[in-house]
Each structure stands twice: as C-alpha cells, then as structure tokens.
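One example given next:
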Amino acid sequence: MKAAIFGMLIAALGSPALASGSHAGGHGEAMAVGEPGVKAKATQTIRVTMKETDDGKMIFTPSTFKVRKGQTVRFAIQNAGELDHEFVLDQEDKIMEHKAVMEKFPDMEHDDPNAIRLAAGKSGEIIWKFTNDGTFKIACLVPGHYDAGMHGDVSVAAK
C-alpha cells in the first residue's frame, strides 16, 4: 500500500526527488529540523493544543517555540477541536511541498516521526532532537487548515 502511495506521489510531483524525506519509508537523508529523540533524554515538555475557533480560524496554542540546538523536546499534543488535525515539524519548503501533496491526496496515511495526526479529543506526542539552529515550521496539512491559520514557527538557537 505504501509503495502505491509513493508511486502516486512521484506521478503527481513529476520526480521522486521532490517527495524525498517527506513520508514513510524515508530515504535515509538527514532532516534539517533534526531527528527523532529519546524520551528519557527530553529536557523540556511543550504542551500544544490544536483547535478551531468560533471565527473559523484553526490554531496551535502556542504557535511559536524557542529551543536550543542539541535539545530534545517532548511535544505533548492535544486535539481540543472538533476536526482531525496534524502537527508536522519541518523546514518551511518541505512543509509547503507536503501541503501541495496533501491537497491532491487528502486521505494519505503518514508514518513520519516528525508528524502526528489526531482525531478530535485525542492526544499524542512527538519526541524530537533539534540538531541544527534556524527557524523551522509547524503546520497542520489537512487541506484548508494551514490556510485557516494552523501553522507556526520553531526558533532553534545555538547553545
């Protein structure tokens, strides 16, 4: 099944290079945003809520984070909304590539250590080690959610 989805991605994007590193199966390349962390080494827990607002916006609370290069963080994520939402952590260009693919294949299943999709009322976590400094993005890539405001920034500063 995953091979069939990857085939559809390649067909949709025109080349496998554009899809590399974005979905299950990976391609062995390092992610600029970092790598999966070890829970026992987490030095901070950041609690994040995902939800819709009465005025039609979709938000992460908080939507901006500051961490240190080399730090392992536990993101404790709660979907307090009425719709499914995602928490995806990556470089902005990778987020935008993934967003375009999700618009074509909205029911695509993911198995990425830097992302989690949660049904309404559910919670989960991502353990992440930030290996590079810079500014990275969090986003919900369910079609329409990013455009409704569901994205934010993670600033990673050198030690």
The chain has a mean pLDDT of 85.
